[in-house]
Design brief:
Largest sheet of chain B: 5 strands, parallel
Largest sheet of chain A: 6 strands, mixed
Order of helices and strands of chain A: HHEEHEEHEEEHEEHEEEHEHHEEEEEE
Number of helices of chain A: 9
Mean pLDDT of chain A: 96
CATH architecture of the largest domain in chain B: 3-Layer(bba) Sandwich
Largest interface: A-B, 26 and 23 residues
Distance between the termini of chain B: 48 Å
Shape of chain B: globular
Helix content of chain B: 25-40%
Structural class of chain B: alpha/beta
Radius of gyration of chain B: 23 Å
Low-confidence stretches of chain A: none
Number of domains of chain A: 3
Low-confidence stretches of chain B: none
Strand order of the largest sheet of chain A: 10-11-12-9-3-13
Mean pLDDT of chain B: 96
CATH superfamily of the largest domain in chain A: Probable tRNA modification gtpase trme, domain 1
Oligomer: heterodimer
Radius of gyration of chain A: 21 Å
Number of helices of chain B: 16
Structural class of chain A: alpha+beta
CATH class of the largest domain in chain A: Alpha Beta
Strand content of chain B: 15-25%
Number of strands of chain A: 19
């Protein structure tokens, strides 16, 4: 059944006001001592359950559970599903084998990124795309003329991220030995329950995909298995620190999904986001290709940089200067990294300072301590690699901690 | 067969300060050798496995003071160092009461109110006073100590820095500061709190590692010393090094070796070689000899000077000052492999504070009596202990479901009294075991099933600490942290710049400013001083900025 068929029936029911419960809400609510919820696609999602610091360290030192069910999930299936997706995303989907997951981007006809997400391939004709932004309409439009069907699984599929160095030990304790599952691989471990070795933390970790109404037993199974392995439920604030350390982007924060941007020129090309490796010009036509080729000739207007910022005051929201005087960009995400012990930031910096002349960059950080505002101009040094990239994330089979 | 070689600098002892100094010397371009008497490195920041499946932080066991400037500059996380904060702590009483020092501020306030509504309010003022003192002292940690007795321009600069900061406090606050630095923790706590249990819980940091009682002047500073660190900017917070405290030394060693340095284990210093008032190298216990114009000793000042430096090379007044340097051992330790999590029947179910530091001392009077025992040469009948189970947080220390417990014990004398005689040799295996039993009896106040949980136990008296790590009398700070031997008086007056009367011989361990606690500051400060003296100051990063 596709989402449109059921729409007429739903129209008569009044829609709920405010935030609604996700599939794991009962468990999360019992653990949410901080009573801090935020709006993730209309769901009440925990920003902190207890203490950001301890949640973060559970993630980086032991293991963490984080509900990712509000992600948008779309099934794309049919004889021409591959062709349709290949025309939509910038990577070559033909090279994605069944059982594998790819990080993908898709652009509008001007080459501006609409969203990023993970693309799962189940079989020759069967895919799932997971992303932040509502995408059903765009996928349906993109599927026009292709022999494939798009199904919105967002509210049918619960998803849970188990991340951290003891996550594989927890899988084993839960009776799920996936020691041979490589990074970016996925597998159906029971009817209706799939596990992928993916995540948003840059660490060893897995994501679980199962039926919405089977969510609580899944949570309980992992929770029990995690008892002796330091498992802790975490909120988004902890995950956000980890994803900045890993250098991962958040839509609406580090870039503006072009469909949601009301102001002109807010869209960015993959290269401007530092993601040009995800664009395959050789694979044939895809949406935005012509515009991106032209953009390659012109060169990027800006670049999203990873910055190592002096001092320890987080640079969130700081403006970036060249030579302390010329304003050339701004920090999109900034945090103190408790693991790398560095003050780290992602920042959009205009060309040429973000591209060819990226020396002599400074961040202007404002702090307010006990009622006194201070302005600090500190060095910001571009860094190529992720701030934290542990080898354990790539080891197969993974270690126990 | 004996080995010879020539280096630009040799560091004697692969403790965390020696390795820190070695990193900075090597990175400044000096070919540096580190020699270590044990077959392993780390000194008192060490992780060893003594029973399969378990790892102990055998000596030091928690981390907070390690200077983040050094961690960042040497990029220690890249070499595997991860410091994980722990949550709160708690104290238990014989009659089944408890005090939970919760990490959650709202919960802590409610808990304090349960003991005394006045104390709940007092806690805010108490914390403010301590944090103010921390704010004052922290900038001095990565600088040489200001020396009012010196007229050298560099010393005058440091003195000006001190005076400027002191002046900034205003006379009232300066008075408070001086009072705080010289007061006893007992008096300070009595001023603020009324609950005996709350006071006992907070007093521990004032006596850890120190041959003083809670009512001895100077113990308030010892508490401050334990508060002035941080974990990720949270001042006063403490954490575990993932993999045990050896992770700190191992990361430093890896950074040193990546920079091209050499570490040689298995033979310690026999003699520091001196010729015409200048150091020329080291003779090791295995017959090897290495030459260098700079020797940086990570050993404490007493061991360095009195045991390994030719007496003829040293002026008499310096020798006497070193001889009277107080370095009394006062602490012992149990490291326990547990075959399961012990029960804490008095704690609320699932209490988060069990992941922090736990104690069974009920009042300041009890703590003072524990000190009286030590003065008489005995281990305390009712010892104070600082007990943690890091394996609740750190998955690397014990198999899943099993645990590792570290129990720091105060007080235990170095020279134990037995049959009317006080001697370190009185620490026989039987007496060590008897001390452990005394401690276990007291741990039973909190966890009655502790004895049934023990899979393996390491017992360390001050004597073992001296024999194995090399700390004179087993003093964990390489010299007590009392005002008479802090700042420009540390280790001895006139030699606060990490130097000695022997040209080229330096003291780089915790005997030097700013003292012990796994800070790495003495090592880094000493390296800066050494490089300055050989005209290479420009090769040292400015960590104090």
């Amino acid at each position: 059944m596709n989402a449109r068929d059921s729409f007429a029936g739903r129209a008569a029911t009044p829609v709920p006001q405010g935030l609604i419960d996700g599939p794991f809400h009962q468990r999360l609510a019992a653990l949410n001592h901080a009573r801090a919820w935020y709006d993730w696609a209309g769901y009440a999602a925990p920003s902190v359950l207890d203490t950001v610091e301890f949640e973060y360290f559970a993630l980086r030192n032991a293991a963490s559970l984080f509900d990712i069910s509000p992600m948008r999930k779309f099934r794309v299936a049919g004889p021409q599903a591959e062709a349709m997706l290949n025309r939509m995303v910038t990577r070559d989907v033909a090279r994605l084998a069944p059982g594998r997951v790819a990080y993908v981007l898709w652009c509008d006809e001007e080459g501006m990124v609409i969203d990023d997400g993970t693309l799962f391939r189940f079989g020759p004709d069967d895919f799932r795309l997971c992303c932040q932004e509502p995408m059903f309409g765009w996928l349906e439009d993109a599927a026009w003329g292709f022999d494939c069907a798009v199904t919105d699984e967002t509210d049918a599929l619960a998803a849970l991220a188990l991340q951290g160095p003891t996550s594989h030990a927890i899988l084993k304790a839960a009776g799920l030995d996936l020691g041979d599952l490589r990074p970016f691989a996925h597998r159906e471990v029971a009817p209706g329950l799939a596990i992928s070795r993916t995540g948003f933390t840059g660490d060893l970790g897995y994501e679980f995909w199962g039926a919405w109404d089977a969510a609580l037993p899944l949570w309980d199974r992992l929770w029990e298995a995690g008892r002796a392995h330091g498992l802790r439920a975490v909120g988004y604030e902890a995950v956000n620190i980890a994803r900045i350390e890993a250098g991962f982007l958040t839509a609406g924060v580090d870039f503006q999904p072009v469909h949601a941007a009301e102001r002109l020129h807010r869209g960015r090309t993959p290269r401007e986001l530092g993601l040009e490796r995800l664009v395959d010009f050789g694979k044939g036509h895809f949406n935005g290709r012509r515009a991106l080729l032209a953009a390659e000739k012109r060169g990027p207007r800006s670049r999203l940089l990873r910055l190592d910022v002096e001092g320890h005051k987080p640079a969130q929201g700081a403006l970036i200067y060249h030579g302390r005087r010329r304003e050339v960009g701004h920090v999109t995400s900034g945090t103190w990294s408790p693991t790398a012990k560095r003050n780290i930031a992602l920042a959009e910096v205009r060309a040429p300072w973000g591209t060819t002349k990226s020396g002599d960059l400074w961040a202007e950080i404002y702090t307010c301590e006990e009622g006194v505002w201070e302005r600090r101009m500190v060095r910001a040094r571009p860094q190529r690699a992720a701030f934290y990239r542990p080898a354990r994330a790539r080891a197969t089979p993974p270690a126990d901690f | 067969m004996s080995e010879h070689g020539r280096y630009d600098a040799i560091v004697a002892g692969a403790g965390h300060n020696g390795l820190t100094a070695a990193c900075y010397l090597q990175k400044a371009g000096l070919r540096t050798l580190v020699v270590e008497k044990n077959d392993w490195i780390g000194g008192a920041a060490v992780s060893r496995s003594l029973t399969p499946g378990w790892t102990y932080s055998n000596c030091s066991y928690v981390c907070s003071l390690l200077r983040r400037e050094i961690v960042r500059d040497l990029d220690l996380p890249r070499f595997g160092l991860q410091v994980i904060p722990y949550e709160g702590g708690g104290s238990f009483t014989r009659d089944g009461r408890h005090f939970g020092y919760y990490a959650d501020p709202a919960q802590l306030r409610r808990e304090l109110r349960r003991h005394s509504p006045r104390d709940a309010d007092a806690y805010q003022r108490y914390s403010r006073t301590i944090l103010r003192q921390c704010r004052f002292i922290r900038p001095f940690l990565l600088r040489p100590a200001p020396d009012p007795l010196s007229a050298r321009p560099r010393d005058l600069g440091e003195l000006a820095f001190l005076l400027k900061r002191a002046h900034g406090l205003g006379s009232r606050e300066l008075g408070e500061t001086i009072r705080f630095w010289t007061a006893s923790i007992g008096d300070f706590l009595d001023e603020h709190f009324e609950s005996d249990l709350v006071k006992a819980h907070l007093a521990g940091s004032g006596i850890i590692g120190t041959g003083l009682g809670v009512y001895s002047p100077g113990t308030a500073y010892v508490l401050l010393h334990h508060y002035m660190g941080d974990v990720d900017g949270a001042i006063g917070a403490w954490g575990f090094a993932r993999g045990g405290m050896g992770a700190i030394s191992n990361a430093l060693a890896a950074a040193f070796e990546e920079a091209g340095g050499t570490i040689r284990t298995g033979a310690g210093v026999e003699e520091i070689l001196v010729d015409d008032g200048k150091v020329t190298g080291l003779a090791l216990s295995d017959g090897a000899e290495f030459r260098a114009p700079i020797v940086a000793s990570n050993m404490d000042v007493k061991r360095t000077i009195l045991r390994h430096t030719p007496r003829a090379a040293l002026p008499e007044d310096y020798l006497r000052a070193v001889e009277r340097f107080k370095i009394r051992g006062s602490s012992a330790k149990l490291n326990i492999a547990l075959d399961g999590m012990p029960e804490f029947p008095a704690a609320p179910p699932g209490a988060s504070f069990l992941r922090g530091d736990l104690h069974c001392s009920e009042s300041l009077r009890e703590l003072e009596r524990a000190y009286d025992d030590w003065k008489r040469g005995r281990w305390s009948d009712e010892p104070y202990f600082d007990m943690l189970i890091p394996s609740q947080i750190d998955p690397t220390m014990a198999p899943p479901g099993k645990h590792m417990m570290t129990v720091f014990i105060q007080y235990a004398p170095y020279e134990l009294e037995a049959e009317g005689l006080r001697a370190a040799g009185n620490w026989t295996p039987e007496r060590r075991q008897a001390m452990a039993e005394t401690v276990l009896d007291k741990i039973e106040v909190a966890c009655p099933d502790i004895r049934r949980r023990i899979h393996h136990m390491e017992i360390r008296s001050p004597k073992e600490l001296e024999d194995e790590v090399g700390l004179t009398e087993g003093n964990i700070f390489q010299g007590e942290l009392t005002f008479d031997q802090l700042l420009f008086n540390r280790p001895v007056p006139g030699y606060a710049r990490y130097d000695t009367p022997v040209k080229g011989l330096y003291i780089v361990g915790s005997s030097a400013h700013p003292g012990g606690g796994v800070m790495a500051a003495p090592g880094a400060n000493a390296a800066r001083e050494i490089l300055h003296r050989i005209g290479r100051a420009g090769n040292m990063p400015d960590l104090a900025a």
